[in-house]
Amino acid sequence: MSALLDVEELQVTFGRTAAVRGASFRVERGETHCLVGESGCGKSVTALAVMSLLARGGQRSAKRMRFAGTDLTSLSDREMARLRGNRMAMIFQEPMTSLNPAFTIGSQMAEVMTRHKGGSRAAALDRAAELMGRVGITAPGMRLGQFPHQLSGGLRQRVMIAMALMCDPELLIADEPTTALDVTVQAQILRLLANLKRELGLSILLITHDLGIVARVADHVSVMYAGEVVERAPTAELFRAPQHPYTRGLLSCVPVPGRVQRDRPLGSIPGVVPAIGPGFAGCAFRSRCAHADETCARAIPRRQAGDAHDYLCRLEPDWAELQPA
Amino acid sequence: MTAAIEVENLRCEFRVHTGLMSAEKRVVAVDDVTFSVPAGSVLGIVGESGCGKSTLARLILGLLKPTAGTVLVDGKRLFDLDRKARARLIQPVFQDPFASLNPRRRIKDIVALPLAAQGTFSRGEIERRVGGILERVGLSAAMGERMPAQLSGGQRQRAAIARALVLEPRIVICDEPTSALDVSVQAQILNLLADLRRDLGLTYLFISHNLAVVEHVASEVAVMYLGRFVERNETDALFRKPRHPYTQALLESVLTPEPGKGVPDIGLGDAMPDPSNIPPGCRFNPRCRIAVERCRHEAPKPVVRAPRGMVECHLA
Ligand SMILES: Nc1ncnc2c1ncn2[C@@H]1O[C@H](COP(=O)(O)OP(=O)(O)OP(=O)(O)O)[C@@H](O)[C@H]1O
Ligand SMILES: Nc1ncnc2c1ncn2[C@@H]1O[C@H](COP(=O)(O)OP(=O)(O)O)[C@@H](O)[C@H]1O
Ligand code: SF4
Ligand code: SF4
Ligand SMILES: [Mg+2]
Ligand SMILES: [Mg+2]
Description:
The structure holds two protein chains of two kinds. Chain A is an alpha/beta fold. Helix content of chain A is 32%, strand content 22%. Chain B has a single domain (3-100, 169-311), classed as P-loop containing nucleotide triphosphate hydrolases (Rossmann fold). Chain B contains eleven helices and twelve strands. Chain B has helices spanning 53-60, 83-89, 97-100, 107-118, 123-136, 141-144, 153-165, 183-200, 211-217, 235-240, 245-252; strands at 5-17, 24-37, 42-46, 68-73, 76-77, 90-93, 171-175, 203-207, 220-225, 228-234, 303-305, 309-311. In chain B, strand 9 (220-225) and strand 10 (228-234) form a beta hairpin. Residues 245, 283, 285-286, 289, 291-292, 296, 300, 313-315 of chain A line the site of one iron/sulfur cluster. Chain B: Keywords: ATP-binding, Nucleotide-binding, Transport. Chain B: Involved in beta-(1-->2)glucan export. Transmembrane domains (TMD) form a pore in the inner membrane and the ATP-binding domain (NBD) is responsible for energy generation. Chain B: It is found in: Cell inner membrane.
């Protein structure tokens, strides 16, 4: 069966800034796919490009961008609006950006449903209450009558998830949904998403910069660097045998509780992400890579390291490391 | 030996107006906290948003007057010292390096400011010291000529650290110094802070909501909940054997990069803590998995465990 979301060579530019430079990834049905990378690498722009929600001045092109068999690049604005919030829904890092402070939670949730599916407001409110219970909000009846600012950050994010589920979407895109929350609330929200995925057969594209989250919730991972997907792999394999020097570096930077060696420095990646202008060629990581040589300034091959594992680098795969454990 | 920081029965209240007609509310941000930090060590402080970590930092820096209690820094009351003497003793590094650096000045002038404010250093001496500290934190002389907006987040935090250290203080209060940074840059900054501490013999108070980071840098850790330290211990002991149910929940909620483990069910519930409405009895009881009847009306007293350990729980 074909993937639910299939993106091939997505490019997004804002004037002279190349925000996404040929990103390719696939979200399979019923799985959680994580897009991971450091700030500014193009994760949010990628998600917004898929949803056709790019800010003004953003130019999008792609070799292929299909959702459930539909070619997204050929849809009109109206056709896209019919998909958005309906068959594909999105939640953001800061729920207040997508909740209207002037309307109650109930009326905002009901509006999503009546806009896409019609039906009565009463029926929509019933569904809203049911979904709020489902995402772990106690006393949904009371919450429906409240305004967004009356809720804590964790509750607001639950409301956003419930609202995204109103029309029974096939794909949920979540852009850093827990970054603004405490670790305790984060764990509760991520557990909720994992349960929803299992119970509703939902597919999730989860965007995060946190490798701990990736390890715990993803089925497949795409690692982004400077607008490109530099490595894709099944989650366990990515953590066991990362092949791209950037992925390896990133994993070494993360302090792991219980395995901390306090007198030793953490691994780190020297330098910073370079500014990438038009006409840039070769590997964008070469200014920070210990393995860089002059060939890294030329076109870089995508190398296969397994059935669903590939990466962009001049170096051959380390087959010994890739052996099943 | 005197402790670098000595805090006794420290309390800080804010009065907040919630609306036109509603009564004034009293927010207790720090509630009767007592502890000391030995010179040369690192005390890590963890806890959820709003539990009072930054308020505690501002009290220790002398930026905020306590409602009650005392703070001694290097044996002295900060309120008895003038600003210049205070600046030579203790310095802050905050989360958002952009907000804390003047956007209209060059980096080297920002770093020079604490020296210039002392009024005792010659121009040449200032230049020499600024050059030295910029190099020490890994910024080139060319970076010193730039404006803050022309630096990356990690470079700005290096500049903020340079400014904090240029007067060679004994004590540095770090409030979420790496929370706005990417992991690769966070690792660079944590390694830098560790080197500086070792080489200059500094004492840190290190606030973070990231437990793994705190475990990496701290020699002792205090867990804060609704304005109080509910548990404190040497880092290894606290991470190996957390005693307070809240510490246990915090540790369980850390998502380590271990595939296949899934997301834990930490069972803390939705009753988010509110410092303007602290529950009677044990302040953690509405969220506590193992609370008993006694917890609802009697507040637990601090119990000393091991040489430097402390926990506040009837059942720990
Ligand atoms: N100037 C002030 N006036 C009124 N209330 C305040 C003031 N400063 C802090 N508070 C309140 O005191 C409590 C503790 O705040 P504090 O900033 O110390 O929390 P924190 O632990 O640093 O949280 P975070 O992790 O979000 O930084 C909060 O409820 C906060 O709203
Ligand atoms: N509206 C915009 N106008 C111009 N540049 C933008 C805009 N949105 C994002 N960018 C740029 O695109 C790049 C990728 O940004 P983004 O996708 O937000 O990164 P992240 O991976 O942190 O989500 C960055 O260089 C950013 O500055
Ligand atoms: S292509 Fe070259 S610079 Fe890029 S990651 Fe591979 S070895 Fe490093
Ligand atoms: S005193 Fe009671 S409510 Fe408080 S932490 Fe201990 S067991 Fe839980
Ligand atoms: Mg983003
Ligand atoms: Mg704070």
